[in-house]
Amino acid sequence: NYGIVLDAGSSHTALYIYAWPAEKDNNTGRVEQTHSCKVKGKGISSYASQPWKAGESLTLCMQEAEQKVPNKRHHETPLYLGATAGMRLLNMENSSASDKVFQAVEKALQKFPFSYQGARILSGQEEGAFGWVTVNYLDDLCSCCVLTSMRFLSPSQGLETTGALDLGGASTQISFVSDNYDGSESPSNSVTFRLYGNDYNLYTHSFLCYGKDQVLRLALAQQTQVNFHPCFHPGYTEIKNYSVLYDSPCVSGRKPQGAPENFTLRGNGSFGQCQEIVKSVFNFTSCKYSQCSFNGVFQPLLQGPFGAFSAYYFVMNFLNLTDTSIPLDTVKDKLARYCATPWDEIKLHTGVKLSYLAEYCFSGTYILTLLTEGYNFTSESYSNIKFIKKVSRSYATLFLLHTPQMPHDLSSFPVDH
Ligand SMILES: Nc1ncnc2c1ncn2[C@@H]1O[C@H](COP(=O)(O)OP(=O)(O)OP(=O)(O)O)[C@@H](O)[C@H]1O
């Protein structure tokens, strides 16, 4: 059997093909990702003003899928598209534009011989829950997948589940199981589902606008009138366009009256000052629950190990900071030294896009601030986080998208026994 998922994020879209044995020769039930294809260009939400291009952008990867899935399986192979925060933002800002993008995508996908199951925006809850399921099935936190799946089979034997921390371009998710959370306090953060006969009650929250690209906009928007921005390296200079910067519902309300067309961004590379700016994007003033993370959002006590993926991994891996056994203060010192490094030296790094190179100081600062100030990881609990490379959220999406309502019964979730 085969299944195809398009994961349409704010910054990219990727196609994944999964394969698993047919039931009659189901000796392992093991699902494998057999192929992936990165769709050229940005996420489909970036085609708001030319929706037909969103459809066209998918064509090359869809043609690859046609080649990879055996012809005789085409008609029975389900095809899903799940869009995340970029489309959530576009839908908020201009729902007719997001409808047009979906229509174009739908038209393009229906031309292929697969069993098209629809394209839709995932809720933040779903995105968080899919990330959690994926981390707990496909993670590399334990040495083999069999052990990982056993964790699902027998949590009563004391095997703890792993929390999921996902940092995207437009939103960020935190999901974990906590003994202190039964869903009664802030029920909107609760996702319950059944997996292999075990009931899970997950705490999950998705913070829209707290992906790294949107927080960078917020951090830039605060500093357009000052001479130097501490989140960029000394010697870094870039002409920024006001309209482009404020073209997002996450920042649009903050555009200064009578702003000129451009401003000049100049860096001075100060981790401490950058952290102050980043802290100011969180609101800690009110909490109507027993405890909160930020912006008045309930969060129970952190519990167990966590897997941090997507931009958490890209950034911390580039900065050589994935080792969480290093004391947090040392991690901050290293980042402070990195931020203070002149741009002339940083830009010599080869094989990485210049735009990413320019942003790692900001992104590293945001990640440490989000984890410690936002989610309340301490010097001790920081070491419970593992930055992990390979998490394909779409894996879980494939099996869950066709069940439109939570709670899901995941009893048919394929796994190796
Ligand atoms: N090598 C890299 N170095 C730094 N940042 C990267 C790298 N590769 C991707 N990114 C950035 O990491 C962020 C997260 O990427 P990811 O693909 O997980 O997000 P997304 O799915 O597009 O976002 P969302 O889930 O919010 O819609 C994006 O801002 C992306 O541009």
Automatic annotation (TrEMBL):
GO terms for cellular component: caveola. GO terms for molecular function: apyrase activity; ATP binding; GDP phosphatase activity; ribonucleoside triphosphate phosphatase activity; UDP phosphatase activity. It is a multi-pass membrane protein. GO terms for biological process: nucleoside diphosphate catabolic process. ATP binds at G169, A170, S171, T172, Q173. Its EC number is 3.6.1.5. It catalyses: CTP + 2 H2O = CMP + 2 phosphate + 2 H(+); ITP + H2O = IDP + phosphate + H(+); GTP + 2 H2O = GMP + 2 phosphate + 2 H(+); UTP + H2O = UDP + phosphate + H(+). The keyword Transmembrane applies. It is found in: Membrane, Caveola; Membrane. The keyword Membrane applies. It is an enzyme of class 3 (hydrolase). Belongs to the GDA1/CD39 NTPase family. Catalyzes the hydrolysis of both di- and triphosphate nucleotides (NDPs and NTPs) and hydrolyze NTPs to nucleotide monophosphates (NMPs) in two distinct successive phosphate-releasing steps, with NDPs as intermediates and participates in the regulation of extracellular levels of nucleotides. By hydrolyzing proinflammatory ATP and platelet-activating ADP to AMP, it blocks platelet aggregation and supports blood flow. PANTHER family: ADENOSINE/GUANOSINE DIPHOSPHATASE (PTHR11782), ECTONUCLEOSIDE TRIPHOSPHATE DIPHOSPHOHYDROLASE 1 (PTHR11782:SF32). Homodimer; disulfide-linked. This is Ectonucleoside triphosphate diphosphohydrolase 1.
